[in-house]
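tokens incoming
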């Protein structure tokens, strides 16, 4: 456990000194081997390290894209072992075996009755093809570090990300770092890259932990070796609209997840299948896609990368997590904040028809924050929602950001300060 600033500061200073060593000594310092059978190696690409408080970049032009920072964190273990011995390294490319488990096995069908599935789909008068996925051995998380007005660096509920990764790892038959290992790795990554944390009000440092089956394997089975890796990038608004209301499209052809699959865990293959639907929606002028359930195609599930909420009067509803919907940490936080503010909050199955009577609709997620929805289009019907004046979403977002940035006293213990 990190007790204070001395360990992190000494570690970063050691890495700075190591970057000037010859390449053969640098490899030994990092603890990475050059054996031919190593499944993952770190390519040595030391960068120039500045002592400036901030990195040299135009923070006003920051968007949501990759800006390589100085350091990343890597830890490995074998299939039947526990993670240990993680360390910081210069941010660099990685080398991985072509037979690594994460690269080879993406989809498999578990046993189920296709006839039972067809009968359910025929409720709509035609058969629909549904794909059950047993996803690849790869998980990721996303959290943010924010610089406060008084100069502190805060994380928001990182232990929740750690818990979610452990849940996903159990589903995917992967070993996982402990909660403390996860949080410490995030802390070290953020502290070593603190000059990349934007000034207050200019964005945040997005932190991306990865858990990958990197060991080589040919047959369909769990990988023999696993890598936990954390890197970071400064970011601002996720959507090109910035804080403007989103215009969503309900795509009736594609589904995001199916019952019995892995839609409820943050596996990497839950995201690539939505790219075609997103591209098609954006070609038509929409911000993103809102998906329906895979069986009856009439209940709201979630947007490509965020959860969805509807507001009617004092009632706030969001689709219940039932194995196909990711339990977002921002979602969980907004539910609690809404209850604290006296709203009637309900997690339930939400028919698409309920959109007609909704006052407001908004999305939540680590990357998007709380984003208001201006309209949702289904087929040729466009439903519009309130986006001006006194908004429930704006009130909830203000409280959330106040906690994340230290402007509101954190009585819940949600923020973690990095010294």
């Amino acid at each position: 456990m990190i007790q204070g600033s001395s360990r992190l500061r000494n570690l970063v200073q050691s890495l700075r000194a190591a970057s000037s060593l010859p390449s053969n000594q640098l490899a030994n310092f990092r603890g990475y081997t050059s054996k031919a059978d190593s499944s993952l190696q770190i390519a040595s690409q030391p960068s120039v390290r500045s002592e400036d408080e901030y990195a040299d970049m135009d923070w006003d032009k920051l968007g949501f894209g990759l800006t390589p920072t100085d350091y990343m964190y890597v830890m490995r273990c074998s299939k039947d072992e526990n993670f240990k011995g993680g360390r910081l390294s210069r941010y660099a490319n990685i080398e991985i075996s072509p037979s690594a488990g994460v690269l080879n096995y993406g989809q498999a069908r578990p046993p189920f009755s296709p006839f039972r599935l067809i009968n359910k789909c025929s409720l709509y008068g035609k058969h629909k093809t549904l794909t059950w996925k047993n996803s690849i051995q790869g998980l990721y998380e996303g959290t943010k570090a924010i610089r406060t007005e008084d100069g502190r660096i805060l994380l928001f509920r990182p232990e929740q990300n750690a818990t979610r990764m452990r849940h996903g790892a159990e589903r995917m038959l992967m070993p996982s770092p402990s909660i403390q290992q996860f949080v410490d790795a995030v802390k070290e990554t953020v502290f070593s890259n603190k000059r990349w944390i934007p000034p207050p009000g200019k964005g945040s440092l997005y932190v991306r932990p990865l858990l990958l089956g990197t060991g080589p394997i040919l047959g369909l089975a769990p990988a023999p070796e696993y890598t936990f890796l954390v890197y970071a990038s400064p970011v601002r608004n996720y959507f090109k609209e910035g804080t403007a209301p989103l215009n969503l499209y309900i795509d009736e052809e594609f589904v995001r997840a199916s019952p019995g699959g892995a839609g409820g865990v943050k596996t990497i293959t839950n995201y690539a299948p939505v790219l075609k639907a997103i591209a098609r929606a954006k070609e038509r002028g929409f911000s993103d896609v809102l998906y329906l359930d895979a069986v009856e195609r009439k209940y709201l599930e979630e947007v490509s990368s965020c959860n969805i909420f509807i507001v009617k009067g004092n009632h706030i509803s969001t689709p219940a997590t039932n194995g196909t919907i990711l339990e977002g940490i921002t979602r969980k936080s907004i539910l609690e904040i809404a209850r604290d503010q006296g709203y009637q909050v309900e997690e339930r199955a939400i028919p698409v028809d309920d959109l007609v009577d909704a006052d407001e609709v908004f999305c939540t997620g680590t990357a998007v924050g709380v984003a208001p929805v201006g309209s949702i289009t289904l087929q040729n019907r466009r439903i519009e929602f309130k986006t001006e004046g006194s908004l429930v979403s704006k009130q909830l977002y203000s409280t959330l950001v106040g906690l994340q940035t230290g402007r509101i006293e954190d009585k819940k213990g949600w923020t973690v300060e990095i010294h």
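note: The chain has a mean pLDDT of 84.
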